[in-house]
Amino acid sequence: MMDIYLPLKRPSWLVDNKRMRTTSDFQWLLSTFVLLYLMNHVNSQRKETPYDLKCTTNNLQKWDCSWKAPSGASRGTLYEFCIDDRSHSCYHLARTNIEIPALSPGDHEITISLQDAGSSTSKFILNEKNISLIPDTPEILNLSADFSTSTLHVKWNDKGSVFPRHSNVIWEIKILWKKSMELVKLVTHNTTLNGKDTVHHWSWVSDLPLECAIHYVGIRCYVDNLLFSGHKEWSDWSPLKNISWTPDSQPKVFPQDKVILVGSNITFCCVSQEKVLSAQIGSTYCPLIHLDGENVAIKVHNISVSENSGTNVVFMIEDNVCGTVVFAGYPPDTPKKLNCETHDLKEIICSWDPGRSTGLVGPRNTSYKLFEGFSGKYVRFKKVDVSANESYHQLLLQMVPNQEIYNFTLYARNPLGRSESTILVNITEKVYPYTPTSLKVKDINSTAVILSWHLPGSFGKINLLCQIEINKINSVQESRNVTIKGVENSSYRIAVGKLNPYTVYTFRICCSTETFWKWSKWSNKKQHLTTEAIPSNGPDTWREWSSDGKNLIIYWKPLPISEANGKILSYNVSCSSDEETQSLSEILDPQHKAEIQLNKNDYIISVVAKNSVGASPPSKIASMEIPHDDVKTEQAVGMGKGILLTWHHNPNMTCDYVIKWCNSSRSEPCLMDWRKVPSNSTEALIESDQFRPGVRYKFFLYGCRNQGYQLLRSIIGYIKELAPTVAPNFTVEDTSADSILVKWEDIPVEELRGFLRGYLFYFEKGERDTSKMRGLESGRSDIKVKNITDISQKTLRIADLQGKTSYHLVLQAYTDGGLGPEKSMFVVTKENSVGLIIAILIPVAVAVIVGVVTSILCYRKREWIKETFYPDIPNPENCKALQFQKSVCEGSGALKTLEMNPCTPNNVEVLETRSTFPKIEDTEIISPVAECPEDSSDAEPENHVVVSYCPPIIEEEIPNPGGDEAGGTSQVIYIDVQSMYQPQARPEEEQEKDPVGGAGYKPQMHLPINSTVEDIAAEGDLDKTAGYRPQANVNTWHLVSPDSPRSTDSNSEIVSFGSPCSINSRQFLIPPKDEDSPQSSGGGWSFTNFFQNKPND
Amino acid sequence: MSRREGSLEDPQADSSVSLLPHLEAKIRQTHSLAHLLTKYAEQLLQEYVQHQGDPFGLPGFSPPRLPVAGLSAPAPSHAGLPLPERLRLDAAALAALPPLLDAVRRRQAELNPRAPRLLRHLEDAARQVRALGAALETVLAALGAAAHGPRPEPPATATAATAATATAAGVFPAKVLGLRVCGLYREWVSRTEGDLSQLVPGGPA
Fold first, then answer.
1. Hey, how many other C-beta atoms are within 10 angstroms of the C-beta on A412?
2. Strand ranges across the sheet with A593-597
3. Å between A384 CA and nearest CA of chain B
4. What average pLDDT does the segment A388-416 reach?
5. Shortest CA distance to A309 belongs to which of B76, B136, B120, B113?
6. N or C, which end of chain B has less CB nearby within 10 Å?
7. Positive or negative, the Cα torsion across A976, A979, A982, A984?
8. Contact, A131 vs A107, CB < 8 A?
9. Is the pLDDT at A945 greater than 60, yes or no?
10. Backbone dihedral region of A345: left (phi > 0), alpha (psi from -120 to 50 degrees) or beta?
11. Closest CA to B121 of B49, B176, B27
């Protein structure tokens, strides 16, 4: 708003009012009151004169001023409008506005007065600063829409001709949509006014397809003139214009088949008369945005790349479906690795890598255009169905005559964008020739051929570089480079020399240009056999005298292919000496041996090989054999496939060395092969496919001197040693009680398969059936092994064996190749007779000695014994009840010990004399009175350990008066003489059981020596053992051997000698040896075992 | 069925009439071809759906069976028509299918140029249905029924127009149209097989 200068100036205090306002509230209220009063006063004055002068401009050239009429003025009131400038112009007018030319900058006094009332005059100060610049309302000339691209095009005129000077204009355009006119977009657009009317265009792409909703467009402007100091304002909005789409009856989805960039946001809408139920893109459902009517839209953010047939967007309507397809992809990548070359200098091929896939196919696929800058030629590339894995594209362009430099630009384009790539090439340096074809070979001679081939292209102005690959069987591949002048007719030929005669060659060729870019592909191979030439060397020759020494056998080897130079047809052999010459001609190949009867003269043997072209130089060898010293046969072992022979340098050997070899089992003359080595060699590795491991070969080293050969060394050897295939055949020569003598035979060489290094002899105790199963596992302690390394030894005595024992013998031979099979045998050693004799004699002698000593003792102590055991007793002759026949002790054969007579028994009293000495022979034991019950089994407990003797009642001779009468019973006490040997410790049960179970003699007394407790027990036992004991059992009156069946059965260590007289009865114990005695080991103990020292041997 | 469907024109209605051997062989051959194409049509439909992207092929998505100009789906009353009439309708439909299948193949060549199998099957389908139609025409002619009965509509021009319309309408309608054509192909081939089976001696009564 511009300021209007009024005649009544505002009081200055009003200006200062602000300063005072803060003084106090009262003052502030007072000031407000005064101000209101004054304003009312002024207004009342204003309404009496013209007031509110306002001036605007829309073109900066004229000002449009208006004022308000005073309150008393009528419609037809005349005004005088004067401008106080230099001209002091006044205008008379009957309205309240006036258009005046724009005033110069500065204040101008304006006087407006009513002409009929001179007092009503108003004065205003008018300045440009108080002027408002308000442009005229713009008008949209045209609003159009491109529905396919959802683009609105707005066209309007800036009416710049009305503005006197250059001005900037800001246009503001608003886009409204839907019937509700929602603001969608408000944009500004800057232009300049150039003094002429200019039509401006502005386009806007709508996110929402234009078909989906009505779109309104309005525009206004703002003129920004820098020279204008007044107030600038926006113009009014132009009248709105709209764009709408008339829908079909069928629902439709927009946009249709659009191609967009991956990652973009896009809005789809469905224009439908019916209600849309849902919408989805692909398989993903999207929320609906409702537009006018039943129209809906969906927004898709960051869309991903589509599959080939596009991404489906589907709107589900009741009983219907409508949809569209969107293709999300990428703009074409910059073509990479653009390369242009030619195969034939006629056509240029440019290829490139299209780079990242656009994701678009078919009509949306990238199209390429190759443009050549100098000639202006171009070709297009359009391949709709390029497969996904086709990484390179290429275009062909015909070469321009006489143009070598080409500037290619490749343009790539698709609906989302474009890209390009350029390359500048000299095409003569980018020749990649086609593959040579029709390769042919033609002979020149046996060592040279001509190669010809076809290579399409116009190479007349350049040279070609070709590479010839020459392959010979079993030879290193050879390549030769040749430079040839290019031709226009595409036919080329060159000569290839330095070939071998009669050799199969395989040729192939590839070419490039001299300014190398790329080799062509190899041509097809062409095989060719060169023609023959005469053999270059004579065959390698050797000779041997036949076994009878009358014939000389000449051997030669077939010439190698490289020397034969063709197919060898025959050989000529001649033997010449000073006296004669013998020849054998036309020996057809493949015979490589000839035999000629010669005397012992020295001959020079000559062998010539012939092919279809001619004969080879002769190969000569002397028949002379130089005598040699004694040559010892040595041994050697090879290295798997060959054998290395070494020798010392011999300066006398001037020709060469020859090593011949043969299988040692072959008969003489023995020759498998030979090999010549130069005279300066000291070693040779002999290899042959005929060598077999485990086969013994003989090698002979000959030295050549003065055309004669002298045997230097003789070697037997193996390429590889193996284990023998058979076991040595061995027999037992001799067997004794403690040794075995074994003898074996040599193994044949063929079966030895290596150098014999020794024998392994195993032996162990064992029977045939058991040992077989056990084998000879290592580490078994019971197997004894003898390693016989002296291979000349053919016998072995095995000593320290056990007699009458079976032994398992095993013999194996071994070489460095391993152990051969084993041969086994079972041998039983003989029995040891001396030991048996000793085993019998010693017990007998001991028994005799004991008997003699006992007899002597008894004799010397007979008085004591008599007093002890047989004191004076009543004469039995006085008693008819007891009559001992005297002849009993005198060796009568009829034994009658006791005779029961029906007499009154006497009491027999034995006087007891107790000795104070601990010696057992001095111990007197009084036997309790033995009663003889009629039925002892009833009277005694079951565990009664002593069997009482009950004399039988012989009724015929001695009628029994009645055993119940104790007073008439004689009591006889028998006392054993206990041996000093104590029985072996035995379990109590056994001790108690044995007497009961034993049927033989039982000692009446058991007298332990040093156990008091046992003494007491023994005394207790004595009570139980009361009764008669038979003093003698004639059947037991012999020496009981420990190994007798009875002894072993009873396990009793007590052996007793009993006397029928009971006077000198003695009991002897033969103490057991120890736990390990043969007796303890079970049955079969013998005196032989008794004398055995070694438990096992 | 206890008796063969058909009118008095049905050559099989009178059991005393026996087909000539070569006609019988032709009917068998045509029926076998129809039987084979029924399987091919099913495979083609599945393969077509496979290449159109979601939601084609998803359960629950069934675009409306829009009418195809020149070719309608077999009517529910088809089974009640006399056999010669049915065969004539079959032949007419088979004649209308090849241009539609060709149009579908052309559109799919743009959309799925990297699906040679689908394109080959569409091409084969057009050729095979053409062969089946010709064979059926031969059978009808042999039966004396070819000249009788109205053809529903001239197929070639209508289907060509349909194909052109689908091409111009946009990709999505073209996809839907292709699906519809493949479905019609399956239905008509199956229908033809069923109708021919009643002519085959020893076929369903």
1. 24
2. A541-545, A551-556, A593-597
3. 7
4. 84
5. B113
6. N
7. negative
8. no
9. no
10. left
11. B49
SS3 content of chain A, % helix, strand, coil (to 5): 15, 40, 50
Q: CB B168: neighbour CB atoms within 10 A?
A: 9
The span from the first CA to the last CA of chain B, in angstroms, equals 6
Residues sharing a CB contact under 8 Å with residue B39, sequence separation 6 or more, in sequence order: none
Sheet containing A784-788: give its strands across: A784-788, A756-765, A806-815, A818-828
Kindly report, residue by residue over A142-199, the tens digit of the pLDDT.
999 888 888 999 999 888 888 877 888 899 999 998 888 889 889 999 988 888 888 9
Would an 8 Å CB–CB cutoff place A280 in contact with chain B?
yes
- B142 close to A (CB below 8 A): no
What is the H or E stretch that residue B131 is in? helix B116-143
Long-range contacts of A316-320 (CB under 8 A, 24+ apart): A316/A276, A316/A277, A316/A278, A316/A279, A316/A280, A317/A251, A317/A270, A317/A272, A317/A274, A317/A275, A317/A276, A317/A277, A318/A274, A318/A275, A318/A277, A319/B64, A320/A251, A320/A274, A320/B64
pLDDT band for A981, please (50, 70, 90 cuts): very low
Spell out a b/e string for A700-720, using b for 16 or more CB atoms within 10 Å of the CB, else e: bbbbbbeebbbbbbebebbbb
Burial A107-122 (b: 16+ CB within 10 A, else e): ebebbbbbeeeeebeb
Residues of chain A with Cβ-Cβ distance to B112 below 8 Å are 308-309, 361
Cα–Cα distances (Å) from B61 to A86, A101, B130, B204, in that order, read 88, 75, 30, 35
Question: What sign for the dihedral angle of Cα A986, A992, A995, A997?
Answer: negative
DSSP string of A359-402? S--GGGS-EEEEEETTT--EEEE--TT--TT---EEEEEEPPTT
Burial of B100 from C-beta contacts in 10 A (0-12 / 13-18 / 19+): buried
Contact between A718 and A755 (Cβ < 8 Å): yes
pLDDT digits (tens, 9 = 90+) for A255-266: 888 899 999 999
pLDDT, tens only, B106-152: 889 888 988 889 999 999 999 998 898 888 888 888 877 654 444 54
The number of angstroms, rounded, from the C-alpha of A313 to the middle of its chain's C-alpha atoms is 50
List the alpha helices (DSSP H) in A398-458: none
Please report the pLDDT score of residue A581 as a whole number: 85
pLDDT in tens, A492-507: 999 999 998 998 999 9
Are A278 and A288 in contact by the 8 Å Cβ rule? The answer is yes
Residues of A in contact with B111 (CB under 8 A): 308-310, 361-362
Of the given ranges (A26-40, A806-820, A1059-1073), which has the lowest mean pLDDT?
A1059-1073
Q: Which two tokens stand for residue A788?
A: 């016989």
In this model, does residue A72 exceed pLDDT 50? yes
**pTM for this predicted structure:** 0.55
pLDDT of residue A926: 39
Instruction: Work out the minimum CA distance from A185 to partner chain B, whole angstroms.
Output: 30
Tokens 């011949």 sit at which residue?
A660
Q: A1039: pLDDT confidence band, cut at 50, 70 and 90?
A: very low
How far is Cα A261 from Cα A256, in angstroms, rounded to an integer?
A: 15
For B71, the 3-state DSSP assignment is strand
pLDDT digits (tens, 9 = 90+) for A782-811: 788 889 999 888 899 888 888 888 888 899
Helix H or strand E encompassing A186: strand A182-193
Strand partners, A172: A188, A220
d(CA A81, CA A89): 8
Q: Which of A280, A310, A322 sits opposite B171 (nearest CB)?
A: A310
Which H/E stretch holds residue A709? Answer: strand A708-718
